[in-house]
């Protein structure tokens, strides 16, 4: 498709795992040409690992394939003088460089922003490190789950009176990825006015700490830490997640007003609770939380989850089953909106992949190709972009500077 919003943007992607690849996935979906650069001797952890599957296990990682669609694959050893030189020649032609190493890594490569800017003053570089490029923790490594703890999120998550609980999914990566893409677009817009690029220092910890802004302000102003409260809400009662035993489904129910409560009592066939004046107010239901919660739980336990959801919604009560991944794959709303995109990839076959969550009417996201095989486009890129001949390409392969097969097929 032509006339995509980022058609003329060239991106060099040095990232691994999820946060950085999510940034470049968003850019690639909207037309940017993304060169996914991987080390010949060190696998991206999201590619999977040797022994996990038969065949080329490093080509089958589900997460890796999901976030690296629409990209070209290039293997390049940046520790070598030849690899570093080739990368700098690609920088000459690029608009954006994205990396998510600890800050010392690009410095050790001799490829920090100052070096790149000398080659191309219009280059935009973003570094998505765990703790940011400055400060005493700058060189500490970070992954999704530890960032929840350091950011303060894990402390707030869990049942009342219980221990902190991790969210269970890499929410930091998704949030940092979206914010990173936004920052790049802002820097590119600024470049249009000034003619100069910029350096973006993004701390993944800080992006997640934004999610607990109200609790931070409470601690600052009132000197207190928020309590864990599980699924409870101060402004709603009942508000929780309940198990439907017949089909092992869980359903979330939120009573937002006193009139909601009256209708809920009708749905669960508890006129005695509706007649109890002490439960007619939020404060009254809060003081009788165990009674209210048990009544809802008892009714839900005898219900099919989808039938309970429909009955509650017909009564005007906010309710939804907790969708399993298998439910989502069959969800008519997601399919109707084109959320799932079918892509065919060597080693995997044809499968649906999560699509773009942002829809631009005139310049929509497109899905032109699946994630690249390891080093798939290396020779094509170096030949067409940098003018290398066959003998030079063979010599790079022989020296281990480039490769289409990783030297170490274990991600650990």
Count of DSSP helices? 19
Order of helices and strands: EHEHEHEHHEHHHEHHEEHHHHHEHHEEHH
Q: List the strand order in the largest sheet.
A: 3-2-1-4-5-6
Counting copies of identical and different chains, the oligomeric state is single chain
Largest sheet: 6 strands, parallel
Outline:
elongated
Uncertain parts: none
Overall mean pLDDT: 92
* Number of DSSP E strands: 11
The rounded Rg comes to 26 Å
The share of residues in helices is 40-55%
Strand proportion:
5-15%
**Helices and strands: which structural class?**
alpha/beta
- Taking the alpha carbons of the first and last residues, their distance comes to 39 Å
What's the gist of this structure?
With 412 residues, this protein is α/β, with parallel strands linked by helices. It has helices at residues 19-29, 62-67, 81-93, 103-109, 113-119, 144-151, 153-156, 171-194, 204-209, 213-222, 258-267, 271-275, 282-287, 289-300, 305-314, 325-329, 332-336, 378-386, 390-399, and strands spanning 10-13, 33-38, 72-75, 96-99, 124-129, 198-203, 239-244, 249-254, 318-321, 340-345, 349-354.
Could you explain the architecture of this structure?
- The chain is of the alpha/beta class and 412 residues long.
- Helix content is 41%, strand content 14%.
- It has a six-stranded parallel β-sheet, with helices on both faces. A three-stranded antiparallel β-sheet has the order 7-8-9, covered by helices on one side. Strands 10-11 form a two-stranded antiparallel sheet.
- Helix 1 crosses helix 8.
- The model has no long low-confidence stretch (mean pLDDT 92).
């Amino acid at each position: 498709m032509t006339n995509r919003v980022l058609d003329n943007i060239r991106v060099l992607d040095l990232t691994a795992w999820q946060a950085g690849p999510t940034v470049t996935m968003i850019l690639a979906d909207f037309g940017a040409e993304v060169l996914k650069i991987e080390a010949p001797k060190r696998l991206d952890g999201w590619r999977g690992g040797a022994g996990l599957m038969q065949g080329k296990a490093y080509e089958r990682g589900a997460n890796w394939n999901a976030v690296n669609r629409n990209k070209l694959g290039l293997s390049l050893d940046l520790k070598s003088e030849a690899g570093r030189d080739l990368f700098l020649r690609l920088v000459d032609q690029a608009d954006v460089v994205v990396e998510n190493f600890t800050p010392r890594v690009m410095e050790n490569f001799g490829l920090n922003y100052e070096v790149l800017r000398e080659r191309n003053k219009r280059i935009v570089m973003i570094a998505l490190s765990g703790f940011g490029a400055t400060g005493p923790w700058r060189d500490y490594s970070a992954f999704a789950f530890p960032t929840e703890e350091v950011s303060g999120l894990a402390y707030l998550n869990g049942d009342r009176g219980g221990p902190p609980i991790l969210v269970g999914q890499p929410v930091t990566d998704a949030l940092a990825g979206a914010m990173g893409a936004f920052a790049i677009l802002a820097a590119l817009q600024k470049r249009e006015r000034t003619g100069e690029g910029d350096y973006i220092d993004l701390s993944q910890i800080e992006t997640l700490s934004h999610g607990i802004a109200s609790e931070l302000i409470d601690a600052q102003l009132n000197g207190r830490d928020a309590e864990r409260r599980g699924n409870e809400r101060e402004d709603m009662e009942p508000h929780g997640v309940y198990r439907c035993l017949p089909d092992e489904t869980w359903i979330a129910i939120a009573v937002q007003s006193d009139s909601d409560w009256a209708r809920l009592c009708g749905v669960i066939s508890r006129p005695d609770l509706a007649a109890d004046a002490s439960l007619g107010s939020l404060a009254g239901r809060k003081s009788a939380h165990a009674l209210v919660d048990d009544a809802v739980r008892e009714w839900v336990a005898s219900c099919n989850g989808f039938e309970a959801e429909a009955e509650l919604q017909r009564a005007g009560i906010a309710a939804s089953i907790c969708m399993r991944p298998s439910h989502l794959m069959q969800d008519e709303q997601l399919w109707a909106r084109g959320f799932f995109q079918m892509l065919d990839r060597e080693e995997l076959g044809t499968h649906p992949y999560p699509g773009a969550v942002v829809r631009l009417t005139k310049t929509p996201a497109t899905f032109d190709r699946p994630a690249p095989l390891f080093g798939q486009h290396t020779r094509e890129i170096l030949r067409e972009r940098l003018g290398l001949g066959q003998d030079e390409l063979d010599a790079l392969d022989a020296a281990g500077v480039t490769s289409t097969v990783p030297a170490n097929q274990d991600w650990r």
